[in-house]
Amino acid sequence: MKKLLITICIIFYLSFIIGHLSLIQAAYVLPYPSYMPGNKLYQVSKLIDVVKKYWSWGNIAQTKYQLSLSDKYLVEAKTLFEYRQYLLGAIALKRSNDAFETLPALVLNTRKEGKDVTNIVATISEAGKEHERVLGEMKLIIPSSFTWSPEKEQSTELSLHASVDKAIELRAVAVSKIEAL
C-alpha cells in the first residue's frame, strides 16, 4: 500500500512538472565570447566554422548555423569595441551582418520545401530583437568615427555609428521579410 501511494505521488509530481515545462520560456541569449583575434586558437575556431558550414546539410541546419555565426560575431564585435579594438570590431560586425543577411533566403527555401518554419521565425525574431538591443548598447560606448592609423600604411576612417545603424536596419529588414513569409 505504501509503495502504491509513493508511486502515485511520483507520477502526479512528474506529470505536474512536465506539464508546466511547456509554459516556461526563456529570452533569447547570446553566446559567451569565443576566442578573440590575437589568440592562437582564433584561426582554428574560424576553420571549425568553415567545417560546420559544410557539415550543416539542409536549409534548417544552415539557418541555425548562420544565426549562431551571426550571434558569435556580434558578441565578438561587442567585446572588441569594449576594448577599443575598433578595426577588428568593425570586421566582426560585418561578418555578423553577412551571416544574418542570409537568413531570409534560407527561411524562404525551407518554406518552399513545405516545412513548418514557425519555430524558426520565432527564434529569428527574438534574435533580431536581442541583436538590436546589443547594437544599441554598442552605439553608446563607441565613438561616431575613428581613424585607424597603422604604422607605415595609410590611415583608414571608420564610421562606427553608421556601421551600427546599418546593422540595426539590416536586422529589422531581415526580420520583417522573414515574418512576412
Radius of gyration: 21 Å
Cα separation of the termini: 58 Å
Which outline best applies? elongated
Order of helices and strands: HHHHHHEEH
DSSP helical segment count: 7
Mean pLDDT: 90
Count of beta strands: 2
Which structural class should the secondary elements be placed in? mainly alpha
Side-by-side strand order of the widest sheet: 1-2
Q: How much helix is in the residues?
A: over 70%
State which percent range the strand residues make up.
Answer: under 5%
Q: Give unreliable regions as ranges.
A: none
Largest sheet features: 2 strands, antiparallel
Number of domains: 1
SSE blueprint:
Blueprint: H1 2-21, H2 42-55, H3 58-82, H4 86-101, H5 103-112, H6 118-141, E1 146-148, E2 156-158, H7 160-180
Antiparallel strand pairs: 1-2
Notes on the protein architecture:
The protein has 181 residues and is mainly α. The chain has one domain (38-180). The protein is 72% helix and 3% strand. The chain contains seven helices and two strands; from the N terminus they run ααααααββα. A two-stranded antiparallel ribbon has the order 1-2. The chain starts with a helix and ends with a helix. The model has no long low-confidence stretch (mean pLDDT 90).
